[in-house]
Amino acid sequence: MAISGIGIDIVELTRMRGAHGRHGERLVRRICTELESETMGDAATFHQLSRVFAVKEAVMKALGTGMRGVGWKEIETCRGASGAIESLLSGRALDVARRRGVSSYALSVTSSSEFVLATVLLASEKPT
User: Exposed e or buried b for every residue in 110-122, given b needs 16+ CB within 10 A?
Assistant: First the structure.
């Protein structure tokens, strides 16, 4: 196994609270897939949105595309069987991962009263 990408993102909750307060549902629709929106429900909180945002940005960074090469909805967060957050790729995000030979990934999310931090490590069978 070889590391093919590392991404990390930190979201300041006060900034997301402000953005969520100003844009509300429009911000949720822009960033979240239908499944993510359903999981959050009608009362999506800025804290839930911060977790999704941090994971998506960390994945984009790990893929090496940033926000310009991959769409928000091409990365979907969900809870796995263990309850841990997982990420599913589609569209351009999946294409980039395949081109880079990504065979597995590790994702970690943590939060405090001030921040949400997401880290993603992409692995491939052979060096990229």
Answer: eeeeeebbbbbbb
58: left (phi over 0), alpha (psi -120 to 50) or beta: alpha
Q: Which CATH superfamily is domain 2-124 in?
A: 4'-phosphopantetheinyl transferase domain (3.90.470.20)
DSSP readout, 60-101?
HHHHT-HHHHS-GGGEEEEE-TTS-EEEEE-HHHHHHHHHTT
- CA proximity to 64, closest of 86, 93, 91: 93
pLDDT higher than threshold 60 for residue 111: yes
Residue 15's closest CA among 66, 67, 53, 70? Answer: 53
Its pTM stands at 0.91
Tell me the C-alpha distance between 68 and 87, whole Å: 19
Query: What average pLDDT does the segment 84-109 reach?
Result: 93
Structure-token pair, residue 86: 């997982």
Kind of pairing between the strands at 75-79 and 2-12: unpaired
